[in-house]
Amino acid sequence: MNAEEKYFNNITNRERAIFEGAITMGALFHQFVGTPVNIDSVESLEKAIEAAMSVQPCVFRVEVVIDRKKLEEISNEFDYVSLTGEMLDVKVTTVCSDKQALIRLKFVSELNYPLMYVEDVD
Amino acid sequence: MNAEEKYFNNITNRERAIFEGAITMGALFHQFVGTPVNIDSVESLEKAIEAAMSVQPCVFRVEVVIDRKKLEEISNEFDYVSLTGEMLDVKVTTVCSDKQALIRLKFVSELNYPLMYVEDVD
Amino acid sequence: MNAEEKYFNNITNRERAIFEGAITMGALFHQFVGTPVNIDSVESLEKAIEAAMSVQPCVFRVEVVIDRKKLEEISNEFDYVSLTGEMLDVKVTTVCSDKQALIRLKFVSELNYPLMYVEDVD
Amino acid sequence: MNAEEKYFNNITNRERAIFEGAITMGALFHQFVGTPVNIDSVESLEKAIEAAMSVQPCVFRVEVVIDRKKLEEISNEFDYVSLTGEMLDVKVTTVCSDKQALIRLKFVSELNYPLMYVEDVD
User: Fold this and answer.
1) Which of B34, B40, B77 lies nearest to residue C4, judging by beta carbons?
2) Could you give the ipTM of this predicted complex?
3) Is D67 left (phi over 0), alpha (psi -120 to 50) or beta?
4) Is B118 exposed, middle or buried (0-12, 13-18, 19+ CB in 10 A)?
5) For residue D47, what pLDDT band results from cuts at 50, 70 and 90?
6) C19, D22 in Cβ contact below 8 A?
7) DSSP notation for A58-116
8) Nearest CA-CA partner of C20 in D32, C11, C51
9) For residue B17, which of B99, B76, B87, B72 has the smallest C-alpha distance?
10) What pLDDT digit, counting tens, does each position of D73-116 carry?
11) In which residues is substrate bound (chains A, B, C, D) (predicted)?
12) Which fold has domain B5-121?
């Protein structure tokens, strides 16, 4: 067992896949919400968020989509907005040994809330 | 089942306690790292982080300790530093129905890394 | 002249008061936007933001008011929101030698934008 | 005079160039410090920071260099670090009518501090 593993021997691989995906999602939201964004910069921001969050432990893939419609609706003369959770649709796939989890962030209308949940898990 | 619960019926209460604690820990780290802090403002920052992160789903208690020794060692004429993960010792306790989890963030010397892990779980 | 001053000998005291206040305002906005907040945690957050940002160079006073009305209007079952620029009214007072500046952040309806501007300067 | 201009008629164009550059620098620092980064993701992060901060008022160009040497020195098994101010070298060029300012952030060894200052202004 390496130095890291001893901190995780009280949970299953499935639980660690969930754990690491959840950390990454919470981190992503609170790192990048507030970032200035408009239609010209949005793709570069999506790619950078994906690259940044993919370096975290157990993270296999991160897919970020920022809602273009919200960017096109901007109705001020400054031509950009601050990124909000409502604009984000994110999938974080984690792998821990033989187990995989897909954590999702998306705005859920019926909850009026950008919800993070486990969309799929082995 | 309420609107929220249907998003979580694929995981156990124990797993949700872990999930929500992990989100809160990732969020806390990435929201507050970078905040200017010194010996005079440190207690107010600890209390505000605890209060802010306690509003998240399933979070029962948040305890934040920022390393005073690091603040006293500041060796520049500006008399403050930016908060880093290395300065943080955090405990997040979550409750999901009959299950409880304690998520911990602390700097682990042998890993040279501010590690997030599940310290205790039912 | 100390080590710091030589970096600022190309601008006036009035300009440095404006410069440092503007840094602090930009920093404040992007550090704290996204923080979870509700009616119970709002005062502690205001005080911590004031204490944190007051440690920056030349900053004499920071006053933060978060719009309670927006917090009371929350219409989701999670009972908190992420702090946005629209909810903030902030005054940063800077002093540089004999000059003082008051930098303001407030939501300006006619611009539909949380504007930062110099409200008063010697 | 448009709606925005009336908020800035108490300062000169030179002062506004300084003001907007300083906001952008403070914003950049506190938005992105804490972001996970390693040698593979660093270029994408630099480009996204440049694109994001270029949308702010009066900002003409943003150039971001993250210190590769610091990334190569990483000595933990997780193979990434959190971005710190010490790793950043940033130039923000602002234009306000006939005036231009260059705001710089770089780590100054003699101050042991990541200093923001006005490197050049008309």
Assistant:
1) B77
2) 0.95
3) beta
4) buried
5) very high
6) yes
7) TEEEEEEEE-HHHHHT--STT--EE--GGGEEEEEEEEETTEEEEEEEEEEGGGTEEEE
8) C11
9) B99
10) 876 778 899 999 999 999 999 999 999 999 999 999 999 899 99
11) 20, 116
12) Pantoate--beta-alanine Ligase; Chain: A,domain 2 (3.30.1300)
Q: What is the DSSP code (8-state) at residue C88?
A: E
Determine how many CB atoms are found less than 10 A away from the CB of residue A6: 11
DSSP C68: H
**What's chain C's length in residues?**
122
Nearest-CB residue to C30 (from D10, D27, D118): D27
CA angle (C22, C26, C32) in 5-degree steps: 140
> Is B23 in contact with A19 (Cβ distance < 8 A)?
no
C46 labeled part of a ligand binding site? no
Q: Which of B3, B27, B48 sits opposite C45 (nearest CB)?
A: B48
Helix (H/G/I), strand (E/B), else coil: D71: helix
Using CA atoms, how far apart are residues D99 and D112, in angstroms rounded to an integer? 32
- 3-state secondary structure (DSSP) of residue D90: strand
3-state secondary structure chain B: CCCCHHHHCCCCHHHHHHHHHHHHHHHHHHHHCCCEECCCCHHHHHHHHHHHHCCCCCEEEEEEEECHHHHHCCCCCCCCEECCHHHEEEEEEEEECCEEEEEEEEEECCCCEEEEEEEEEC
Apex CA B84: angle with CA B78 and CA B90, to 5°?
Answer: 130
Distance CA B55, CA C48 (A): 17
Question: What length is written for chain D?
Answer: 122
Looking up tokens 């705001």 gives D103
| Strand ranges inside chain C, DSSP E | 36-37, 59-66, 81-82, 88-96, 99-108, 113-121
**Which has the closest alpha carbon to C4: B78, D84, D119?**
B78
Asked whether the beta carbons of residue C27 and residue D22 sit closer than 8 angstroms, the reply is: no
Greater pLDDT, B1 or C13: C13
